[in-house]
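Take a minute with the sequence and fold tokens given here and flag any structure token that looks odd. Thanks in advance.
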Amino acid sequence: MDKKKRILIIGGSAGAAALVALVVVSIVLANRPSALIVRGLVNTISDAKRIELIDVADDVANGGSVAVSANLDKFAKDDVTIEAKLYSDADNLKGAYEMTVAEDDEPVLQARVIFNEDKFAFTCPELVDGAYGVSYKTLEKNLPGSIFDPDEETDYSLTEEQFDYFLNLKDTVKNNKNLERDIDNMSAKYRKLIVEKLVKYAEVGRSSKTITAGGEKVSCTVISLSIDQDALACAIQDVIDYAAEDKDLEKLLNRVAANGSYYDDPDELIDDFYDNLDDIEDSLDELSDQDIEITLDFYITSSGRRIAMIEGEMEVEDDTVEFTLTLGKNIATSKEISFEIKDKASKDSYSIVYSVKEDSSKCYEAEIEIEEVKGFRTYDRTDKTKISIEWDKKSTDFELEYESAYGDELQIKGNLAQKGDKYIFVLTNIKTDGTAIPNVKSLELTITVDRNDPAPSVPGNFTEITRMDKRDFKHLVEDISDGVQDLWNEYFD
């Protein structure tokens, strides 16, 4: 065999060995306790997002709408209907608010506020001519010296805090692009970090067990963590140290703080966050002096790697609290989800159980039971609250019943229909303690949720509010105020 062939064979063998080693290392790393817990959390959260209610809410927030309408003929002088509608497109920083008042199906008022990442505008043909709005890009140029400038001391002057907030609004809105996604990613990052640090300092055990969760038997790998006061302090210290040096976290906090109210200084909000970290760090010495024992058992499904159940017990000095969170094999399809927490000394406990009797193309039927036990030595008391939901998807009949721990009852009936991307609910009856509330059916209260309803566009031309003088702005405010008052007087006064 010549030298060249030997080199090829040796090289090929080395490459194969390296590949095998890589696969083995990947399997080992993927099966580390921290990796199993993190992967279980990631998969479970991903499943939760596929729950219909959460999935619909996400679609509506990123390109849909919610509308509420009612017939006010029992309360107004004429046959009047009103509808309020909200469009939302958080992904693209777009949205709109609409309000329509109609008499005999003919609009008498159509007000609309529309915004995107560059500007917002207001229109209402019945009250004002044309559109009025503000361009965020020109705020920094237009606000100084305007009727809104605190230095001008007009009736419309903003406070210094409000003025500074709007001066920076352009950058605030610009930085909001992908803010929700970046918050989710940062949350996932610190979720992973916390798990890794807890596992690093804890006593870790591993076993296998079959449990009953979500109405079915589930084979699980159980990762058990035992954490004392010293381990807890070390884990917290590591997380604080990491957060204090995390520039990406600081940038994200600045973006979030910039969205605070104009009464709050973003810099102060950031300082408060890091001051809180310092306070927690200062208290770690006291934490180490306490007698703490925490045990956590993560039940991770053998197939699918999801969190089926978490059991925990925390003992601080002489007080012991235990809890159980049961999710099932897959939270999106689980027939039962429950949480229970109990104080072992006082026997106080609190539990909430969500159980699904049927969820098919024909029917959805579920219950939520909340139980609170007060285990005082002098007497025991159990308070139960129950919520039941029945939805016949064929007939569209919908019923929700609520019974409080104190015997109060509420019953809501209506029709809930799903038509393509729309969910349309029409309220037909409300009863409290068995007594029907009058005029509910005639109100024709309708809630329409549309998963796919693009927000309208901001008008291309509008009067820039920040360039208006006192006289024109005063007339604009008076026109709107007088118009709304006239409408109220005509139909409701």
User: Anything to note?
Assistant: DSSP finds 13 helices and 21 strands in the chain. Confidence is low (pLDDT under 50) at residues 4-30. The two ends are 105 Å apart (CA to CA). The longest helix spans residues 3-30.
